[in-house]
Amino acid sequence: MFTLMWKFDNPNAADTTGSPELAFETPSAGDGFAFRVAVHCAREAGGGRRARRSAPDLGAEREEVLDRARTVVRETCRRHPAFRPESAEREVNRRLEAELRDGPWTVRVEVGLTEEVRRLQQTNLIAQHKVVTEAESTELRLERLHALSTRCEGFLRAAGHSWETLYALRLAEDPGAAADILARMVEDRRETATDLTKLVAKITEAQRTAGLYDLVLASENALRQAFERLGVPLPPLDPDSPFAPMAESA
Fold it and tell me: How far apart are CA 89 and CA 40, in angstroms?
């Protein structure tokens, strides 16, 4: 919108002021799009010779100021992209202020987007907002994954040093099955101890001819005592086991 307002003293009609309105579009850089321009123009009241001017003289002066403003607007806006009306507006007003500094006229220009460019700008801003939002979501997701993976690493590292971890997880998932989980844990420990005892017996039998029999017997006795202190019940020794005589002597 191009708005032109002026004020002046008219000796023939002291109360004659007007504010007609003009609207025009001017090309932006590349001439592919245009800006919408609004110009507000006012004349300071003066005395002496200026006050004695006739209305037609002031009208001609106004048209001259208007033509100068239009020229400055077109020249300046052609140097700015259609999506940057704020930069065009700053330069236009700076130039007009410098050119009209010594005169009675003051001009203020407003530069805006055309509807076509506004729609494109809206689409562009929505696309940019989507990119920013997705980037922020991805960053947040990565931060949460990093924190979670760090906690999982710590959990797994600690679990590697404790055989109770598996049963603790089962108990956390199903607190109502505490009795069954505890019974399963005790049974698993018993089976593990049994398997270990059998393994030691096999190793002892295999090493009998190697002169390590006494060492193995002592190791087996130490293992059984360790399990007993841990409260792990061990199965009775087979009478044919090579450890049976040692157990009887103990």
Answer: 13
Residue carrying structure tokens 């906690």: 151
HSE, side-chain direction, 13 A CA sphere, residue 173: 7
SS3 call for 26? strand
Structure tokens at 129: 């907002």
Average pLDDT over residues 21-42: 88
Backbone angles phi and psi of 217, in degrees to 5: -60, -45
- Cβ count within 10 A of residue 235: 11
165-180: average pLDDT: 84
Does pTM surpass 0.90? Answer: no
| pLDDT tens track for 55-86 | 557 788 888 888 899 999 999 999 999 999 99
- For 25, phi then psi, to 5°, come to -110, 145
CA 191 to chain centre: 53
C-alpha 169/C-alpha 171 separation (Å) is 5
CA-to-CA separations, 244 to 159, 217, 250, in angstroms, rounded: 36, 10, 10
Q: Which of the 8 DSSP states describes residue 23?
A: -
Task: Name the H helices within the chain.
Answer: 55-77, 85-99, 115-159, 165-173, 178-207, 213-229, 244-249
Residue 202 contacts residue 225 (beta carbons within 8 Å): no
Give dist(CA 178, CA 176) in Å, integer: 6
Cβ neighbours of 62 (radius 10 Å): 19
